[in-house]
Write a structure and sequence with these properties.
With 252 residues, the chain is an alpha/beta fold. It is built from ten helices and eight strands. Bound molecules: zinc ion.
Length: 252
């Protein structure tokens, strides 16, 4: 199993990161830690040094942060992404969050930065990891225009089934998080999306499948379990296929 999207660099893990990583190593073959800010990108690159061949980094800037951050911070983040691009297995997270950010000007800033990241993904031929919330269709349209990107991942996708279908038709991937354990909408998506287009993730520390327990990469097993149930196939099959998808996309 692989957790293709988590944030073990977050301060939530400062007290027990070693244990969390130990449990992840027991259960999983790899994790992709998602850089969501200037500091986050730096932290994930440091963690990658600590857990070589197990923790891989994707480098980006979260859309909600893009709406608020100083332009100088964003520029600094982009410079450092360019400098460290050889160490990254993907670009992101990036995208559009119109659910959280409703102000039109702030949304425009997200669109501009997302466009920059789309170009980076094209230029470096790295997969694009998209966070899209309340703007799934818009994000899809934007990335589809950049037709030279092969590997596109809609992380923690929660949009409608129709857009999901278009994503699949385009050959892009949808990453189902542990939210699938408790959200009926996501369970319906799990049923409909072909296994060939599915990745698994936790988005730790968010979206825990267990009430009162903080999420962590090892819990991605719970998502695999539910996807298998919904598709009436074995956990082993979901595990094998989604891991294969992830290895192909991230070239690990
Ligand atoms: Zn994330």
């Amino acid at each position: 199993m692989i957790d293709t999207h988590c944030h073990v660099d977050f301060k939530e893990y400062n007290k027990n990161r070693n244990e969390v990583m130990g449990r992840a190593k027991d259960k999983l073959n790899a994790i992709m830690n998602s850089g969501a800010s200037l500091g986050g990108n730096r932290r994930t690159l440091n963690l990658q040094k600590e857990y070589p061949g197990f923790l891989y980094s994707t480098l980006g800037f979260h859309p909600s942060k893009a709406s608020k951050a100083d332009q100088s911070i964003i520029k600094q983040a982009l410079d450092e992404i360019n400098d460290n691009i050889d160490l990254a297995v993907g670009i992101g997270e990036t995208g559009l969050d119109f659910h959280e950010i409703t102000d039109t000007n702030a949304q425009k800033r997200q669109i501009n930065l997302f466009q920059t990241f789309i170009k980076l993904s094209e230029e470096y031929e790295l997969p694009l990891i998209i966070h899209a919330r309340g703007a799934e269709k818009k994000a899809f349209e934007m990335v589809k225009k950049a037709s030279s990107i092969d590997n596109v991942v809609f992380h923690c996708y929660g949009g409608d089934a129709e857009t999901a279908e278009r994503i699949v038709l385009e050959g892009y991937h949808i990453s189902l998080s542990t939210i699938v354990c408790f959200s009926e909408h996501h369970q319906n998506l799990a049923e409909r999306i072909p296994l060939t287009n599915i990745l698994t993730e936790t988005d730790s520390p968010y979206l825990s499948p267990f009430k009162g327990i903080r999420n962590e990469p090892a819990f991605v097993e719970e998502a695999v379990k539910v996807i298998a149930e919904k598709k009436s196939i074995s956990m082993g099959e979901v595990d094998k296929k989604t891991e294969k998808n992830a290895k192909k996309i991230f070239k690990i």
